[in-house]
Amino acid sequence: xxxxxxxxxxxxxxxxxxxxIAFVVEGITSGIIPDCQAAAFLMATYLRGLNLEExxxxxxxxxxSGGPLPQGMPFFLDKHSTGGVGDKATLVVGALVAAxxxxxxxxxxxxxxxxxxTIDKLESIPGFRPGMDxxxxxxxxxxxxxxxxxxxxxxxxxxxxxxxxxxxxxxVDSIPLIVSSVVSKKxxxxxxxxxxxxxxxxxxxxxxxxxxxxxxxTMVEVSTRTGLRSSAVVSGMEQPLGRAVGxxxxxxxxxxxxxxxxxxxxxxxxxxLGVRMLGLAGWEPTKARGxxxxxxxxxxxxxxxxxxxxxxxxxxxxxxxxxxxxxxxxVVEMKSPVSGFVKSIGARAVGEAAMLLGAGRTQKxxxxxxxVGVVLLRKIGDRVGEGEGLCLVHHRQGHGLAEALARLGxxxxxxxxxVDPPPLxxxxxxx
Length: 431
Hints:
Elements: H1 3-11, H2 18-30, H3 35-48, H4 52-63, E1 77-81, H5 89-99, E2 104-108, H6 118-123, H7 134-144, E3 146-150, H8 157-168, H9 175-189, E4 193-200, H10 209-226, E5 229-236, E6 244-245, H11 247-258, H12 264-280, H13 285-297, H14 300-311, E7 330-335, E8 340-345, H15 347-357, E9 373-376, E10 383-384, E11 389-395, H16 401-411, E12 412-415, E13 425-429
Helix pairs in contact: 1-3, 2-4, 2-8, 4-9, 4-10, 5-11, 5-12, 5-14, 9-10, 12-13, 15-16
């Protein structure tokens, strides 16, 4: 069997057999298949697609690329977002579900481009260590009921190699490649079930509803075929989720949400995801929502988040706002040029502004500044007067400030008439 023949077969739109897919995954993982051929395979897949059987086989082969799937694991759930601007929901909903007595463990990644990564956010906490082996992961799950780790070489290493190539070959936004990447990592960690949050809109991978629902259906179908309990929601990303965009700023907002003082949209999304996660554990929706709200308002969720951070070496400081979190050197308020109502806020433009300040990266190994970012003072539908604040820009010695302000200026549009906020939850794909 030769890689070039498999590439040609997929290039011509033909279906690959299980042995051919296994050969490619094993070759990419071991390095026997060079990057040039791996990239050609990914491009052929991007252009020609994979059917459900091919996607399922690719998922299973990637999941076992670091060894057999774990057996006899304790019950825990996962939650995965396809990425959005200001999306710190994992930090909140994971802590709330864990506080309800259902363990949550997940493998997360770092951000690239205009969307932030969960690991970047957590690494803004002094001392936080996302790197651990499976045994360390299980110890924290057993002790705290909540753990978040970065991808490691012993869990789905094929995904790490393939994703790095997808990033530099413009093959990231392919449904079968996204599904196999995400689901393989869930299987490799040993999760019993996962809720997928598929973002749709200006700041998301899927800008249209049709693409978002297609991705959601494929995620659930492939997961179900592997024995992984799952469901999916499609949620809006026409404006940033919450108000904070930037790593330490988003951790601070997550803490505020867990203290019952978070933005309404962030709280609503987290409660909905939490109900669905507990549903995978057999909870009735009304009971699940009541327990999650209790954990949100009585401090149990906040306490569980702090326990997780402490168990992974991090220090948040005292109070609800994370006094040890890094802070940028200066803050500039961007003011509204007109009076009226905020008609739209381009989520992608806000994410790109934060990236220009240093909160995000354009290359995989590029460092980020954990302290910089943007905090919105107005959301869609809010009234604003001329000269009143639209957002606060946290910057470090002016780095990227002019470009970020220009991008933010383009992000806001206004109306003289009242405007309704865009819907948050656009639909779901049940288990």
